[in-house]
Amino acid sequence: MPRKKHIKIAEVKNFSNVFNYKDENVFKKICNYFGHKSGYTLELGCGQGDYTINLARLHPRTKFIGVDRKPSRIYDGAKHSNEIKITNVGFLVGYAELLAEILPPSCVDEIWITFPDPYPRRSSMKKRLTHPRFLAIYKKILKTGGIVSLKTDDETLYHYTLKVVNELGLKLIKESSDLYNNNILTEEEKILTKYERKHLADGKKIKLVRFAFL
Ligand SMILES: C[S@@+](CC[C@H](N)C(=O)[O-])C[C@H]1O[C@@H](n2cnc3c(N)ncnc32)[C@H](O)[C@@H]1O
Predict the structure, then answer these.
(1) Ligand 1 centroid from CA 128, angstroms
(2) Alpha carbon 97 to chain centroid, angstroms
(3) Which CATH number is 3-212's, of 3.40.50.150, 3.50.50.60, 3.30.420.40, 2.40.10.120?
(4) What is the rounded average pLDDT of the residues 100-126?
(5) Distance from the CA of 25 to the center of ligand 1, in angstroms?
(6) Does any ligand 1 atom lie closer than 6 A to the CB of residue 110?
(7) What is the Å distance from ligand 1's center to 44 Cα?
(8) Measured between alpha carbons, how far is 40 from 61 in angstroms, rounded to an integer?
């Protein structure tokens, strides 16, 4: 492992705004940090947390948690939000697969999934973060009517997610296969991530799917 990455992994453990799924009483630690037991918005696969930090700027009274399995990716966002003193942001080193074991039922208002690994092969379909097995987990931690939003550049993941939403009878709120062409965007939808900037620079079309559990 490169030395820089190694240092980040070691340092991020000491950040006051970073929690680890392996910690004992991790949810209690999260509640103590934010002073709240519910009303969270999550960004899954947050990387360096662009959505988490910019959503937190838009909504200073809401509590935002960026979730990523890789602590070295979380390091940059956590360091930056500490430096700019944003207190309504935290980061959780953890797997989307384990969210219902880490967080209690109904404590989340909204989930953003920003440019997840698309897993285009059929054999890896179960790893897609909008596969029904993940949606079942999200449903447990979301409040009734909680919203899930996916941003992706990947055609297969976009169509797959629309199909799953339809098959499971979920409420489609908004969708676009070309978000920045002829759409009225909310301030939240306009936030760009590191990967999104790369995809836009490569001339790719950005797709959005937003849906709710009834
Ligand atoms: C392509 S990157 C996108 C990062 C960021 N959202 C962006 O748009 O710049 C995907 C991220 O998802 C994380 N990830 C993939 N599968 C995950 C899982 N099951 N649970 C948590 N994080 C996951 C990866 O570690 C990686 O940082």
Answers:
(1) 11
(2) 13
(3) 3.40.50.150
(4) 97
(5) 24
(6) no
(7) 7
(8) 10
Active-site annotation, residues: 117
d(CA 152, CA 210): 12
Q: What does the pLDDT look like over 21-75, one tens digit per residue?
A: 999 999 999 999 999 999 999 999 999 999 999 999 999 999 999 999 999 999 9
Residue 96 Cβ inside 6 Å of ligand 1? The answer reads yes
Q: Are 151 and 204 in contact (CB under 8 A)?
A: no
CA-to-CA dists, residue 150 to 5, 95, 162, angstroms: 28, 17, 10
User: What are the structural domain ranges in the chain?
Assistant: 3-212
DSSP string, 164-180: HHHHTT-EEEEEESSTT
d(CA 161, CA 132): 9
Contact 65, 41 (CB under 8 A): yes
Q: Judge if the beta carbon of residue 131 lies within 6 A of ligand 1.
A: no
- Which residue is closest in CA terms to ligand 1's atom 13? 45
Model confidence, pTM: 0.97
